[in-house]
Every structure is written in C-alpha cells, then in structure tokens.
Amino acid sequence: MKKIYSILSIAVAFSMLALVTSCSDDDGEDINRTEVLTSKKWTILKIEAGMANEYEDITDAQLYECERDDIETYSTDNIYTKSPGEDNCDGDATGYTGTWAWKDGEKILTTTTFGDTEDYIVESMSASQLKLKSEDKDISVEVGGTTYYYTVIVTYTGK
Question: Is residue 63 one of the residues assigned to a domain?
C-alpha cells in the first residue's frame, strides 16, 4: 500500500510540475520579444475599441479602412516604419518612419513619429501575433470611483 501512495505522490508531483512550467505570459511560447518584433512584417488583424472593459470590434469601420493592410516593421536599430498596403486610399505611397523602444521590461512599446510619442501596452505577444492596447487619457468616464479611459486594442499578425 505504501508503494502505491509513493507512486501516486510522484505522479501528482510531476503533473503539477508540468502544469506550472507550461504556463507563460506569451500565450504558451517562451519568446524573445525584440527578436519577434523585429523579424516580422505586422498587419492589422482586428481592432477593438471601448471603455470600462467593454470593447466592440471596429475592424471594418470606415475610419480604419485605409490602415487595415498597412505594413508595420520594427528594425533592430529601433526604426519604426509604416508602409501603405494595396488599399492606399489616402494617397500616401511612401508611408512614414519614426523610432521605437521598449519600456517597463518590454511591457510597453513606445513609438515616436512626427515628434509625437505613443505608448502601447503589450496585451499579448507570440511568435506570430501582437496585441497592443492604447488609452486616450482625454476621454474618460468614472464608474464607482474607478476612472476608465477610451481604449483601442489592435491585434496584429506577423509574417
């Protein structure tokens, strides 16, 4: 009987170890965020917007029709580039460049273009997908003592 309990205890210990070591903040993938960010061409997969943790899919909104197939790249020398895709409805055939950097231990991606700096919270990142969240501090609502900001979450796919 002692032998059965010992075997059972070892099995439970290995199961718990496997469960704990298989979880990660990066959707199950242990990745180098800089390497993944700089090795892909990123295009928009989904855009959500809202407040108070209630978001609506606005990917097909006319506001974003010109950006949905734009290509964003991040180089190893911290240059950020946004190039127009085939649906170049704003007529800017050249796109634009700026700089990028990590903040807060690679939890915030910062871009600077045209002298404006934007911070994007990295909601999730895997080898082929990037989800960034930005909050507009100028648009807010207070509910039950908590302030909520207008938030846009963009999910990108990397190729």
Answer: yes
Q: Is residue 5 part of a domain?
A: no
Residue 20: inside a domain:
no
pTM score: 0.76
> What is each CA distance from 91 to 9, 10, 63, 82, 85, in whole angstroms?
67, 65, 15, 14, 11
In one-letter notation, the amino acid at residue 36 is: V
Distance CA 51, CA 48 (A): 10
- Record the tokens describing residue 40, joined without a space: 């892909």
pLDDT tens digit sequence for 91-119: 666 789 999 999 999 999 999 999 999 99
What's the domain count of the chain? 1
Domain range for 104 is 31-158
| DSSP secondary structure, 47-101, as one string | EEEEETTEEEE-TT-GGGTTTTT-EEEE-TTSEEEEE--S--TT--SS-EEEEEE
11 lies in some domain: no
